[in-house]
Design a protein that fits this description.
The chain has 178 residues and is mainly beta. It contains 1 helix and 10 strands. It has one helix spanning 2-15, and strands spanning 23-31, 46-53, 67-75, 82-88, 96-107, 114-115, 120-121, 128-139, 144-153, 167-177. The longest helix is centred in the N-terminal third of the chain and has 14 residues, at 2-15. The radius of gyration is 16 Å and the shape is globular. Residues 1-19 have low confidence and may be disordered.
């Protein structure tokens, strides 16, 4: 877990942007939601996620000025927790918007885990994983918004072509503009 905290701090320093349109966020997620993108890994509990989105990056205007972000997710049952960072785009200027994102995370799940009933490995296959996400948000005030979001972690079979169960989380997060 210490390695995850160090990675999150390093990414925070490396992704910082000038102050404006930044926001802190926190949410609660159901851990290991069954979707077509994952296999069962036999984990449970809830995830408490917190993070920070920096101002839209002018240097990345060629891909739509995404907001760099850092996040950490702690599992309440002691199962897989993670931290990392990436880029997210806020699409829409009205009270309702969509926020897709893509990042990289480091997790503390088991190196090897095998489900004898299913006859397959259920560990995540790599310590470094991709973290695509999408949210639908609603602005509550000038500084507050709420989002329903889906977060997925997996390695997309890039690090191990024979194994990639992944984990999906669905939940709600509150955003506070700084």
């Amino acid at each position: 877990m210490r390695q995850i905290a160090i990675l999150a701090a390093a990414m925070t320093l490396g992704l910082a942007s000038p102050a404006s349109a930044q926001e802190a966020f926190a949410g609660v997620y159901v851990h290991e939601v069954a979707t077509p993108f994952t296999f069962e890994v036999n984990e449970g509990g809830a995830d408490i996620q917190a993070g920070y989105r920096f101002a839209p990056s002018q240097a990345l205007s060629f891909i739509g000025k995404p907001q760099p972000y850092v996040l950490a997710s702690i599992n309440t049952d002691g199962d897989t927790s993670f931290a990392g960072g990436g880029l997210s785009w806020k699409i829409g200027h009205g009270p309702i918007y969509v926020r897709p994102g893509i990042g990289l995370i480091v997790h503390d799940g088991p190196d090897e885990r095998f489900n004898p009933v299913a006859q397959r490995r259920t560990d995540l296959g790599s310590r470094l994983l991709f973290e695509p996400e999408i949210a639908i948000g609603a602005r509550v005030s000038d500084r507050v918004s709420i989002e329903a979001s889906w977060v997925h972690i997996s390695h997309a079979r890039l690090f191990n072509s024979g194994q990639n169960p992944g984990i999906d989380m669905m939940g709600v997060r509150l955003n506070l503009a700084m």
